[in-house]
Amino acid sequence: MPKKATAADAQIVLQLYDLRREAEMRKARHWWLVNFWPQNADDFIKVANSLGTQENAWFRQVSGYWDMAASLVLHGAVHADLFLEGGISGEMFFLFAKIQPFLKEIREKMQSPRLFLNVEKVVLGSKAAKERFQLISKRVESRRKAIAEAK
After folding, report:
1. Inside any domain, residue 93
2. pLDDT confidence of residue 151
3. Which residues contact 76 (CB under 8 A, 6 or more apart)?
4. In angstroms, rounded to a whole number, what is the distance separating the alpha carbons of residues 46 and 65?
5. Quick one: CA dihedral 29, 31, 33, 38, positive or negative?
6. What is the pLDDT of residues 49-78, one digit of tens each?
């Protein structure tokens, strides 16, 4: 991978941003960020298996988007350091932190060992990314506990 991001990398990042701005994608991202707070693997699986529901559509849209974006990094189509900038991939870290505590169980129960694998590889693929993920995970867990206590 080149040492510096190129104009082509920047173009792809801007195209990814445009995809995030599409109206239905905005609704889907809002649902993931604000409303979808799984407390365990079964909460996740319930939505993942609820085919035909709006939540399932939003679930698949956002998870598919971030899997696709991560795969571009893993295959060298987008410079990893550029992609890991907060304004570009911060949301991916946040969403992954929501499911990571249950991911092993989710993969087993859904018989899907590659589920979120591209995202996982990017989020845990470098020292800087791991450190960022640890910080975000702490905030996510605090929020998850507050939600559980409020119920």
Report:
1. yes
2. 80
3. 1
4. 20
5. negative
6. 999 999 999 999 999 999 999 999 999 999
Q: How many structural domains compose the chain?
A: 1
Domain holding 18, by residue range, is 7-150
1 within a domain of the structure (yes/no): no
Tell if the pTM clears 0.90, that is, is over it: yes
Quick count: other Cβ atoms within 10 Å of Cβ 144? Answer: 16
Is 2 among the domain residues? no
CA distances (Å), origin 133, targets 11, 28, 114, 140: 26, 22, 20, 10
Is there a domain that residue 85 lies in?
yes
Convert the pLDDT of each residue in 139-151 to its tens digit.
999 999 999 899 8
DSSP-assigned letter for residue 116: T
pLDDT for residue 128 is more than 60: yes
**Separation CA 55–CA 108 (nearest Å):** 22
* Predicted local confidence at residue 43, as pLDDT: 97
| List of residues 6+ apart from 149 with CB closer than 8 A | none
Task: Read off the tokens for 142.
Answer: 């605090």
